[in-house]
Design goal:
The protein is α+β, with helices and mostly antiparallel strands. The protein is built from 5 helices and 4 strands; from the N terminus they run H-E-E-H-H-H-H-E-E. It folds into 2 domains: 30 residues, no CATH class; 91 residues, no CATH class.
Length: 131
């Protein structure tokens, strides 16, 4: 009973005054966002085309770069798309027997909402590199 009361107090205090570092007794803001009923939702993906013509979504296992890291560096990739070449090289070093990447790009999917329903959908290429 005392443990449950202590957990409840920590949870209440963490919710009001806590930060992500206090999780699970504080907010985990990564999942605490709110989308307005009329707005745009976006999602970024790192994509590649191999020398044998396959198109694929690039994962952390492929290059060592997490999606969060890619999104954190998004502005840098947009300013200098040639930086994607280092990810192609990282893929080749990790998977020397695989068909190498000859093209990489960052695609942003966009969903426009109207009254919380998707009213339009599009994809925009934010950065692109060719070997």
């Amino acid at each position: 009973m005392v443990g449950a009361a202590a957990a409840a107090v920590l949870l209440l205090y963490g919710t009001v005054a806590g930060t992500n570092d206090w999780f699970p007794f504080g907010p985990f803001t990564m999942y605490a966002g709110h989308y307005p009923p009329n707005g745009v939702i976006t999602s970024n993906s790192l994509m590649a085309r191999t020398a044998d013509g396959r198109e694929m979504v690039v994962t952390e296992a492929d290059t060592g770069l997490t999606r969060a890291e890619m999104e954190g560096e998004l502005f840098s990739f947009e300013q200098d798309p040639g930086r994607l070449a280092s990810l192609a090289q990282a893929f080749h070093l990790r998977h020397p027997g695989a068909s190498p990447y000859v093209e990489m790009w960052i695609a942003q999917q966009r969903w426009r909402l109207h009254n919380r329903a998707v009213s339009a959908q599009s994809t925009v290429i934010l950065a692109k590199w060719h070997a």
